[in-house]
């Protein structure tokens, strides 16, 4: 993507040319220097609405090009920050394959895995199955039902196929995707990934200098205390440091409205939770409380 050739880095109120070239590995691990707009007190975050959300976006490449117009929050490879990196990866898939992300996912993932309810838009015959979602209104101290995308025509979350957001799915479909990973890249005779690829993507890919520094005033709650990152997947390395009943090497991630999953290779557990709640002050606590409830219920452990 040519727009990423000459990136600028925000440094103490000024822009300077990046000394490191952004890599695909950094995009997978969210160390590429990109941002996602929160917390919203950083100067780079305040720029996000200008090029990304003004004029209608035409496709994934256009979206990525607008992201490239923003300065980087830090030098590539020097820090971890959850970001638009997944959207840039989605654009890379479109450029490399010559397909839209929706068509690529359908052909190579959703159709082989029989994920019949996963797509970027909700068809007319499935509208009645689209559940509601709520946002917590802190001022009114009550829930408010959401009415914007994807809950109104054309029943999609983003105008383009996003690598980082936009899919509509079910818990059953999500479990089939995770079960494919748990079984080493194949399910019901359909191979999606090689077993060595699954093994490699679920290893800890962050340097110790980044994960060890994730404490105190520098704690990034999205990464989590005792957390690290593989290739497109979060990893909890240390249950003691995390302070939550769990297993070392637990693989997980979540969505903005409490779409939570985790895969525990130690106890051989897969879990999907779809709460449909945004803006709650209890969001992070819910993930930990759910883990404690599940693990307290175990009466036998895997040998």
Would you mind describing this structure in some detail?
The protein is α+β, with helices and mostly antiparallel strands and 303 residues long. 28% of the residues lie in helices and 15% in strands. The protein has ten helices and twelve strands. The strands form four sheets. It has a five-stranded antiparallel beta sheet with strand order 7-8-9-10-11, with helices on one face. Strand 1 and strand 2 form a beta hairpin. Helix 3 crosses helix 4 (85-97). The longest helix is centred in the last third of the chain and has 14 residues, at 283-296. It starts with 7 loop residues before the first strand and ends in a 7-residue tail after the last helix. The mean pLDDT is 91.
List the helices and strands and how they pair.
Layout: E1 8-11, E2 14-17, H1 24-29, H2 49-52, H3 60-68, H4 85-97, H5 101-110, E3 134-137, E4 142-145, H6 171-182, E5 186-187, E6 190-191, H7 195-201, H8 208-212, E7 227-229, E8 234-236, H9 239-242, E9 250-254, E10 259-264, E11 269-274, E12 277-278, H10 283-296
Parallel strand pairs: 3-12
Antiparallel strand pairs: 1-2, 3-4, 5-6, 7-8, 8-9, 9-10, 10-11
Helix pairs in contact: 3-4
Q: Give the DSSP E fraction (strand runs of 2 or more residues).
A: 5-15%
Q: How are strands sequenced across the largest beta sheet?
A: 7-8-9-10-11
| pLDDT averaged over residues | 91
Proportion in helices: 25-40%
Instruction: Give me the number of helical elements.
Output: 10
Distance between the termini: 48 Å
Counted beta strands: 12
Rg, alpha carbons: 20 Å
| 3D shape | globular
**Low-confidence sequence ranges:** none
């Amino acid at each position: 993507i040519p727009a990423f050739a000459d990136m600028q880095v925000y440094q103490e109120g000024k822009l300077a040319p990046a000394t490191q070239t952004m890599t695909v590995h950094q995009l997978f691990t969210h160390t590429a220097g990109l941002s996602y707009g929160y917390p919203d007190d950083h100067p780079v975050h305040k720029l996000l609405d200008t090029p990304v959300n003004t004029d209608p976006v035409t496709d994934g490449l256009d979206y990525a090009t607008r992201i490239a117009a923003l300065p980087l929050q830090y030098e590539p490879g020097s820090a971890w920050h959850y970001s638009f990196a997944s959207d840039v990866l989605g654009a890379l898939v479109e450029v490399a394959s010559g397909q839209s992300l929706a068509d690529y996912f359908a052909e190579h993932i959703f159709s082989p895995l029989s994920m019949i309810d996963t797509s970027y838009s909700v068809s007319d015959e499935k509208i009645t199955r689209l559940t509601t979602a709520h946002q917590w209104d802190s001022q009114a101290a009550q829930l408010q039902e959401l009415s914007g995308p994807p809950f109104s025509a054309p029943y999609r979350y983003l105008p383009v196929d996003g690598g980082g957001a936009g899919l509509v799915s079910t818990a059953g479909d999500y479990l089939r995707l995770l079960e494919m990973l748990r079984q080493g890249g194949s399910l019901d005779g359909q191979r999606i990934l090689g077993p060595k690829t699954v093994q490699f993507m679920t290893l800890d890919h962050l340097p110790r200098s980044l994960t060890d520094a994730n404490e105190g005033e520098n704690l990034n709650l999205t990464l989590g205390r005792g957390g690290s990152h593989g290739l497109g997947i979060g990893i909890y390395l240390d249950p003691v440091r995390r302070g939550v009943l769990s297993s070392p090497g637990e693989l997980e991630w979540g969505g903005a409205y409490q779409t939570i999953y985790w895969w525990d290779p130690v106890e051989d557990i897969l879990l999907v939770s779809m709460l449909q709640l945004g803006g709650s002050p209890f969001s992070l606590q819910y993930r930990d409380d759910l883990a404690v409830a599940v693990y307290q219920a175990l009466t036998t452990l895997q040998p």
